[in-house]
Amino acid sequence: ATEQDSILISAQQFAEECGIKVNSAYKQIELASKKLVDRSFSYTNEKGKKVYSNWVIDATYEDAGVNLRFTAVVLMMLKILDKYNPYTRYKKDVVLKLKKDYSIDFYHLAKKSEKLGSFELTIDSMFIEFGLPESYRDLRNLKRRVLKDPIDEINKYTDIDLTYEPIKKGRSVVGFKFTVREKTKHKTITVQGRDPNTVDMFFEMSDSQINMFGNQLSKLPELGKYAVGNEGYEALASRLKDMLKDPEKQKLLVPHLKKLGFNPKSS
Are residues 4 and 80 in the same domain? Predict the structure, then answer.
């Protein structure tokens, strides 16, 4: 792709991925594209010089969605990052839960620094990297809108815990240090007097496993009870796939999964 090529963000596809209505999807991608047009970032080039760049050139609103044209430097970086940087690949179901402004920005930085255990940002660098409005120079606004809300959301929905503490120069706060910790994996819990075959563990399943086993489960007569009204196998399969992603509801399906050959140790 080049700067002359536009990339269509389809409202229909966006709606299907996010599980929302098409009208809502169009409004959301329109809002997101406006923000993206206004956002910029900085990097150091091969000569050691700091360069500021926009993410996109323009956004054109079509009936089917929004066409975006990315700058040449962004296209080049995306190509390089996609090939060599594992931190650009996140689980879709995790990222889609991050709704607050700056949540994805912080999640990306945290995942990038996860092995190091921490990273630091000065307040000035946050304004540049995140494109913050001047009203956030007020430290109370900055902490509430840029730090607390996004980090609370990350800690609630993702695979990491993120905390922060101020970095001071004298009595003034000049930045923040962020500590990243991977969340503890789910463990099997044994309760005295309880059936040892009862499942207390949530098994992480790949998208392909969820799709395959969801379709197979929908054909089992004993799971017809989860169907709503006269819905067919396809609708039931979709419902069961959602259950496989839910830690509590998945427990109800594990015995049936094992009958179909699901091996938790290989997932």
Answer: yes
How many Cβ atoms sit within 10 Å of the Cβ of residue 217?
24
Q: Where is the domain boundary, 30, 50, 84? A: 84
Structural domain boundaries enclosing 261:
207-266
Question: Going along the chain, which residue ranges are E strands?
Answer: 7-10, 40-44, 50-54, 56-61, 65-70, 118-122, 160-169, 172-182
The pTM score is: 0.49
Q: Is 78 inside a domain boundary?
A: yes
HSE, CB side, 13 Å, CA atoms: give it for residue 125.
12
Q: Which of 42, 35, 37 is nearest to 122 (CA)?
A: 42
Extract the tokens encoding 14: 């966006």
Which amino acid, 93? Answer: D
DSSP 159: S
Model confidence pLDDT, tens digit, residues 37-91: 888 877 777 888 888 888 899 999 888 889 999 888 888 776 655 555 544 455 6
Which tokens belong to 233?
A: 């196998």
Cα separation, 142 vs 224, whole angstroms: 51
Angstrom distance (rounded) from CA 150 to CA 154 = 6
Structure tokens at 247: 């830690």
